[in-house]
Amino acid sequence: MMPSRRLPLLWYPALLLALVSGCERQSGDQGAPQEKPRAAAESKQPPDRGNLAAIPIELYDNYTETGDLDAVEKRGKLRLLVDPSHSAAIHRETTQQDVEIDQARLMARQLGLELVVLEVPQFADLIPMLNSGQGDLIASNLLVTSDAERAVDFSTPTAETVVLLVSAQDTEDVGDQSDLSGKTLVVTAGTEFERIAREFAAKHPGLELKVRDDNHIDLLVDVAIGRADFTIVDSQALELVLQFRKGLKANFQFPGAHKTAWAVRKQSPRLLQAINAQVRQLQRPGPEQLARGDLDAILQRGVLRAATRNHPGSYYMWKGEIRGFEYNLLENYARKLGVQLEITIARTDEDFVRLLREGEVDVCACLMAVTPAHGAAGVAFSDPYLESPTGIVARRGDKVKSLGDLSGRTLCVRRASSQLGLAHELQREVDKLELREVGAELDIREVIGLVAGNECDLTIADELSVQVEQASREEVTLALHLQRGKRRYAWLVREENPKLLQSINEFFASPSTDETLQELYQRYFGSQRQAWQKSGRWEKTVKSSRSLGPQHMRQATPDSMPPQLP
User: Fold this and answer.
1) 294-334: per-residue pLDDT in tens?
2) For 268-286, what is each residue's pLDDT tens digit?
3) Identical fold at 287-386+488-524 and 390-485?
4) Domain-by-domain residue ranges, the chain?
5) Taking Cα atoms as reference points, which of 325, 322, 318, 365 lies closest to residue 523?
């Protein structure tokens, strides 16, 4: 199905750099590594490993620079050091750390510098290579420790975290008197985790401690698949791995909170000042920072604050790139305004409305359908920019060709969703059609996943959502198109911001957006079998949209192909 509206032409690839994990290193007394021979990296192809957006440092035509920002500016490059991570090629949700790397790119751009991301050989090499002049900055959620503070200067803290002992889900909770004989604890060498692990092992004779060079994200995977019994990481690392590996739990929380920050060489006050200015943009706004101003306030602030959700159609991480149909649209709109883009992740429709009302974001862009259920006092929809038909989702090969074939079947539908009303309509028309309501906290792709996993019989979804899921779930199909329930997608803003709403509507209506609509739709939702109109302009089937009622809510692939999600 073709989208009904146009998108902006100012698209460019969102090659934003990803670090799958924090590199919480302490400096200890590590000496600076010997400088490696210069390599003609520009002419070599880095191996397909780890963080695919980074260049292995041994393949880069590197140089030694230990000066402050003025020296870095003369070089024209800001070299960001990252640790190797064999988990970076997984499909996962985007994290706060990915946003920080994006901020490093933005900072480099503002300083007129090119950001170069260099992957060091081992985790413990980060601080020594920084101090020896092989890099200029570490933005890897380093834990701020007294040892590290003697070796580098830290920025304003970016976050707080706690340190956890992680085990398999079915492992008994560990206490001070637990007998851990025969168990194995693995930790990453040169980290604060290693120091904590040594103290913990000393209290539990018989526990085997293995200190390894592997990234602690990989060690979490080892625990998940049974290669080790325990590891020690921070809470952010565990949250990340739980996105793609179940069966882990925080078995024990070590006392105290830890701060994370960016790091530079000592005697680099100007570079540190520039970093601190960027870090301030990452801080979650407090009540005094919340802003509900219209377009002029956004332009003055220089930042467009947008909320979206982690979803293959909106905002996600794949092989070191932040991607997503909505993300690219937001990026283009921010470029049109000449401002930076700041992303906040929300999960439920209630969260989006709350973020808008409380002034934490300016716009919500999350493939949200224009429905009365999504209307809320104080918010307004933009003109729809895309529409998609709705149908019955089944497992491939299931013979559902007409409404009559739904007799005796069961539809799984989310509570309080727009599909629920349509399901009730179908139930009145089709004899013996059963409804099963599933949790409202599930999103549509999770419901489709229930069908794919044989946990649900059928469900209702729009074609767009099904196409996204088919990139990774070949077993599902839109078996039957319905002649009702067509979904129109729009952005959501505060009703009190008419200038912003008008600007967004003009953005979507711009004649220059035809080509980009086709490109982005094909990239994220299409296939080579998609029948595209070539008329040069998309037909405007929807003229405008508005706030739909007073109801209150509670809460690299080729350009012509969609992303191949694992």
Assistant:
1) 999 999 888 899 999 887 778 876 655 677 888 888 988 99
2) 999 999 888 877 765 555 4
3) yes
4) 41-160+259-280, 163-256, 287-386+488-524, 390-485
5) 325
Measured between alpha carbons, how far is 364 from 361 in angstroms, rounded to an integer? 8
484, 422 in Cβ contact below 8 A? yes
3-state secondary structure of 45: coil
CA angle, residues 310, 454, 311, in degrees to nearest 5: 5
Q: From the options 3.30.70.260, 3.40.190.10, 3.30.450.20, 3.40.50.700, give the CATH code of 390-485.
A: 3.40.190.10
The token pair that represents 19 in the structure block: 């670090």
- Look at strands 137-143 and 77-82 and give their pairing: parallel
Whether residue 224 contacts residue 168, with contact meaning beta carbons closer than 8 Å, is answered with: yes
- pLDDT at residue number 76: 94
> For residue 289, what is the DSSP state?
G
* 338-360 pLDDT, tens digit each: 998 888 888 777 788 888 988 88
The amino acid at residue 100 is E
pTM, 2 dp: 0.52
Phi, psi of 232 (to 5 degrees): -125, 125
**For 163-256, CATH number?**
3.40.190.10
Q: Where are the alpha helices (DSSP H) in 225-268?
A: 235-241
As a CATH number, domain 287-386+488-524 is 3.40.190.10
Q: At what angle do helices 444-452 and 463-470 cross, to 10 degrees?
A: 60
**Residue 221 · residue 241 · CB < 8 Å:** yes
Q: How would DSSP label each residue in 120-147?
A: -SSGGGHHHHHHTTS-SEEEEEEE--HH
pLDDT of residue 142: 79
Alpha carbon 358 to its chain centroid, in Å, reads 23
Q: DSSP string spanning 158-188?
A: -EEE-EEEEEETTSPPP-TT---TT-EEEEE
The two structure tokens encoding residue 114:
């090119």
Q: Is the domain 41-160+259-280 a CATH 3.40.190.10 member? A: yes
Q: Name which of 318, 291, 314 is nearest 304 in CA terms.
A: 291
In the predicted model, residues of the chain with pLDDT beneath 50 are 1-52, 86-92, 94, 96, 286-288, 527-566
In this prediction, residue 466 carries a pLDDT of: 86
Closest CA to 384 of 329, 446, 316: 329
Predicted confidence (pLDDT) per residue in 186-200, tens digit: 998 888 999 999 999
User: At CA 562, angle to CA 470 and CA 514, rounded to 5?
Assistant: 125
State the amino acid at position 159 in one-letter form: A
Cα–Cα distance, 55 to 330 (Å, whole number): 28
Please list, in sequence order, all residues whose beta carbon lies within 8 angstroms of the beta carbon of residue 65, skipping any fewer than 6 positions away.
71, 72, 75, 133, 136
pLDDT of residue 513: 67
Residue 508, SS3 per DSSP = helix
**Beta-carbon contacts of residue 177 (< 8 Å; ≥ 6 apart):** none
363 and 492 in contact (C-beta within 8 Å)?
A: yes
Rg (CA), the chain: 25
